[in-house]
UniProtKB/TrEMBL annotation:
Keywords: Repeat, TPR repeat, Transferase
Organism: Hyphomonas neptunium (strain ATCC 15444)
GO function term, MF aspect, one: protein-tyrosine sulfotransferase activity
TPR repeat positions: 148-181
InterPro entries per the UniProt record, alphabetical: P-loop_NTPase, TPR-like_helical_dom_sf, TPR_2, TPR_rpt, TPST-like
Designated name of the protein: TPR/sulfotransferase domain protein
PANTHER family listed in its UniProt record: PROTEIN-TYROSINE SULFOTRANSFERASE, PROTEIN-TYROSINE SULFOTRANSFERASE 2
Pfam families from the UniProt entry: Sulfotransfer_3, TPR_16, TPR_2
Lineage top rank: taxon: Bacteria
PROSITE patterns linked to this entry: TPR
Length: 537
């Protein structure tokens, strides 16, 4: 059994956000390698070799078919059932993946804790069934009480559900098993704030960093956590240095897997997208009266999208679904370029719209209004409007320098290649605004802009405005969203469980000296010259 592969997941601010949720996870998904057995007959080995090769090449649909053919003829192969489960999960076929993992267990696969961990991931991320996920994780630790990965994921699940004490207990167990893990220690650090530089958690993170034993990725995780603690106790110069070190380390850890960010490329993408869809502004393909009614919340990361979703989700008629990656997947399947998506046949768009709604109904049976909060969907508004011409779309907006600092202190997924420097984040903010200018010209009056600062300063007025846009009556519960108990899977997991406050407005001013010390950069200089929100009290 290979060691657990602790990857990353959309969720907490000390980890890179996975683009597919959007969520990959701390969960272990790694397949087993094919093994040759002296008693294996030639036909079995041929099928096994083919399936293993297709899996290794990333040809998921073909690999699934190959494993199904293998297991149809030779069902007593527990590792192959495991691999089939892993592949089905990659394909988003959660129920089938669970069945494959069940077969692996029934065939006596070694390391049952691995199976339970992966089943928990499916229940949590694909099927929105956190209680079942929790049960699987408890089975994992029962099978192997020294399995730190299960405790780590159990803590993560408790965080999603707002259960701070339970999360700490799980992380403490994981830390006791693996005290040298930067990920586990950072998770513990993320549960609280520091009141001074003498905070014990600051000392622990400093010691871990100074030990010189961490790989670049883990070193970056520790620096992000340390930066947040410095920020929480007002040591902003030290926080800036930690965030700079964290982002530099994360870039090193990514190696050649991250292309340099280019503002020109994003601006070109925005302009090409606008041109591709301008002729379709009056088109009425797709589904005009969807059931359930999706609400798309999008914009820059850390612009208040989770806050808006939680406010809306507190309404009795709304179900928050979090960051779904479905629109991104459909966009890629349609060719992955604005021109190809705009030119896709109406029949194809209709099929994808129906498939999207079927997925929502599977996740949330009986729901009438479901939110899909994926920030990056701001690129795909044209596709959304083709699928659902009457779609409700909310664009969250925040003072850009506050937005910049919030992104800079967050461990984004490597696919978000703008997130490593303030200069590139400033550029991305310009690109997102350019794209939204195009969409508002193409679809005037159909996209509601919601400013984070307005929600904080005049909450009831903004909540009523949002609900009016959605055609929903006002409910006082929307102003008490922080009392909701549903899962939250973003970096704002603890912020949105607090009552509204203005501590994050003007936060960038704490980092102004650092920002102005950076080499001149057109995009950042433009923000520093124009955007000057007030300094926090």
């Amino acid at each position: 059994m290979p060691p657990a592969n602790l990857g990353v997941r959309t969720g907490k601010g000390n980890l890179r956000i996975c683009p597919n949720s959007t969520h990959c996870a701390l969960w272990r998904y790694s397949p087993f390698e094919a093994k040759r057995h002296p008693m294996t007959d030639a036909r079995q080995q041929e099928l096994l070799t083919t399936a293993s090769r297709l899996r290794a090449e990333g040809r998921v649909p073909e690999a699934i078919t190959a494993y199904q053919a293998l297991l149809s003829a030779y069902p007593a192969l527990p590792d192959s059932w495991y691999n089939l489960g892993w592949l089905l999960r990659q394909a988003g076929r959660g129920q089938e993946a669970l069945a494959a993992y069940d077969e692996a267990l029934s065939q006596g696969v070694k390391g049952a804790e691995e199976i339970h961990l992966n089943r928990a991931a499916i229940f949590s991320d694909l099927l929105a069934r956190p209680d079942d996920a929790k049960a699987e994780l408890l089975k994992a630790v029962a099978a192997n009480p020294s399995y730190a990965a299960a405790y780590l994921n159990l803590g993560n699940l408790h965080e999603d559900l707002g259960e701070r004490a339970e999360a700490k207990a799980a992380y403490d167990k994981a830390h006791a098993i693996n005290p040298g893990s930067a990920v586990i220690l950072s998770r513990l650090a993320g549960l609280g704030k520091a009141t001074s530089l003498d905070d014990p958690m600051i000392a622990k993170l400093r010691a871990l960093i100074a030990g010189g034993t961490l790989f670049p990725a883990d070193l970056a995780v520790a620096h992000y956590a340390l930066g947040r603690l410095y920020d929480s106790c007002g040591a902003y110069d030290a926080a800036a240095q930690s965030f700079a070190a964290a982002n530099a380390g994360a870039r090193i850890a990514a190696g050649g897997g991250v292309a340099p960010y280019e503002l020109k490329a994003d601006l070109y993408r925005a302009d090409q997208t606008g041109r591709a869809f301008v002729s379709l502004r009056e088109a009425k393909s797709g589904i005009t009266e969807p059931d359930p009614q999706p609400v798309f919340i999008l914009g820059m990361f850390r612009s208040g999208s989770t806050l808006v979703e939680q406010i809306i989700g507190a309404h009795s008629k709304v179900t928050p679904a979090g960051e779904l990656g479905l629109i991104q997947t459909i966009y890629r399947n349609l060719g992955g370029t604005p021109a190809r998506v705009a030119a896709a046949p109406e029949s194809t768009i209709q099929q994808y719209a129906e498939a999207y709604l079927k997925h929502l109904r599977t996740l949330h049976p009986g729901a009438s209004v479901v939110t899909d909060k994926h920030p990056e969907n701001f690129w795909q508004i044209g596709l959304i409007r083709r699928m659902f011409p009457n779609a409700r779309i909310i664009n969250t907006v925040r003072e850009p320098l506050d937005n910049l600092i919030s992104v800079w202190g967050l461990h984004l997924d490597n696919s978000q290649n703008y997130g490593f420097t303030p200069q590139d984040i400033a550029s991305r903010i310009h690109a997102e605004r350019r794209m939204m200018i195009h969409w508002n010209r193409i679809y005037p009056g159909t996209i509601l802009s919601v400013k984070y600062e307005d929600v904080i300063r005049q909450p009831e007025q903004e909540v009523r405005r949002v609900l009016d846009f959605l055609g929903l009556p006002f409910e006082p519960a929307c102003l008490e969203f922080h009392k909701a108990s549903g899962p939250v899977k973003t970096a704002s997991v603890w912020q949105v469980r607090e009552a509204l406050h203005d501590r994050s407005i003007g936060r960038w001013k704490h980092y102004e000296t650092y920002l102005r010390s950076l080499p001149s950069h057109a995009a950042l200089d433009a923000l520093l010259a124009v955007e000057q929100p007030g300094k926090p009290a």
